Amino acid sequence: MGSSRKGHQAEANAYVPLPTRDGVAPSYLWLTETRAGGMLRFLVERFPDVSEAAWAQRLARGEIVDAKGAPLDADSHVRQGMRIWYYRELEAPETPIPFKESVLHLDEHLLVADKPHFLPTIPTGRFLHETLLVRLKKRFDLPHLTPIHRLDRETAGVVIFSHNPASRGAYQSMFQKRVVDKVYEALAGPIEGREFPITYRSRMQDAEQFFVSEEVPGEPNSETVVELIERRGDLARYRLHPHTGRKHQLRLHLSRLGAPIVNDAFYPVALPCKGDDFGAPLQLLARSISFIDPLSGEARRFDSGFRLDWP
Predict the structure, then answer these.
(1) Which of 186, 183, 168 lies closest to 260, judged by CA?
(2) What's the whole-model pTM score?
(3) Which of 50, 138, 61 is nearest to 92 (CA)?
(4) Which of 44, 115, 221, 279 is at a distance of 20 to 30 A from 178, taking alpha carbons?
(5) Can you tell me the distance from the alpha carbon of 218 to that of 211, in angstroms, rounded to the nearest whole number?
(6) β-pairing, 156-162 with 284-292?
């Protein structure tokens, strides 16, 4: 089967043939080759976790369309260069996440949220409506809401969203140019035999287990500055300054320093999935984000209201 490229969220500045539905924007799929057998067969092969009956029902309801908004049916041709649009759905009910986000700031350009542990930033895997993005879209009726950056599901703290397509690029460029000061806090074991602050650099890449990262030899592509805030017995609280934004960078760097974060199920060893156990949140918090606003020139800072839990 040929490869294809999926966009989880529709671009706000492009024509989107399906409206946002219950806070969920349509997704799209580029088709990279011409295929025989019709659209239903293609969808079943491309998305094996979704049943044939489910795809057939969605096609019959007219919920899968081409780039012009024309509904596709089971026998529609699959042609290279097509873009099809559809709504992401879950066949199994979502588990409610019993933690609430708060909004720290809202203006004509930005929404700044304080995300709790366990809540995904965007729809992924088995999470759709129980995500920060969809919750906020529903709450504020902001169809163009898009995160400028993301936090792991396990991490709590400050997340910045854009809801104005006209100014989005200016804010996105801040993160691309690394002119945003992001400060995290973590509870972890003591780091012995080192003077603080510690600057830790390494080369990171995705591991064979796609959901974790690993270090490999080579030119560093990640950097974290670690400060000690306080120590209580066999635990310490650290202030972390990531100068790059690699996946799981802070979690992996602290683990490699001999101080894995409390309740980290991925580092140093990936443990069996806990499912919907909310009893042991990862003790990592995106404490604050500060930057010079690219539109107004104003210095801005947003701080999380969450706190880490000493055992």
Answers:
(1) 186
(2) 0.83
(3) 50
(4) 115
(5) 22
(6) parallel
**In the chain, which stretches have pLDDT less than 70?**
1-14, 272-275
Share of the chain above pLDDT 90, in %: 78
d(CA 245, CA 286): 13
Residues designated as active site: 152
Q: How far apart are CA 199 and CA 19, in angstroms?
A: 47
Note the pLDDT of residue 275.
67
